[in-house]
Amino acid sequence: MKTDTTHASGAPAVVGAPWPDFSAALTAAAEGVEAALDACLPQPTAALGERELVDAMRYAVMGGGKRLRAFLAVEAGRLMGADPARALRCGAALECLHAYSLVHDDLPCMDDDDLRRGKPTVHRAWDEATAVLAGDALQTVAFEILADPATHPDGAVRASLCLRLAQASGAAGMVGGQALDLAAEKAAERADGGVLDGVSVKRLQAMKTGALLEVAAELGALVAEAPAAAVAAIRAYARALGEAFQIADDLLDVTGTEAEVGKRVGKDADAGKATFVDILGIDGARARAQALVDEAAAALAPFGAGAGLLTAAAQFVVDRRS
Amino acid sequence: MKTDTTHASGAPAVVGAPWPDFSAALTAAAEGVEAALDACLPQPTAALGERELVDAMRYAVMGGGKRLRAFLAVEAGRLMGADPARALRCGAALECLHAYSLVHDDLPCMDDDDLRRGKPTVHRAWDEATAVLAGDALQTVAFEILADPATHPDGAVRASLCLRLAQASGAAGMVGGQALDLAAEKAAERADGGVLDGVSVKRLQAMKTGALLEVAAELGALVAEAPAAAVAAIRAYARALGEAFQIADDLLDVTGTEAEVGKRVGKDADAGKATFVDILGIDGARARAQALVDEAAAALAPFGAGAGLLTAAAQFVVDRRS
Question: Min CA distance, A159 vs chain B (Å)?
Answer without folding.
Answer: 5
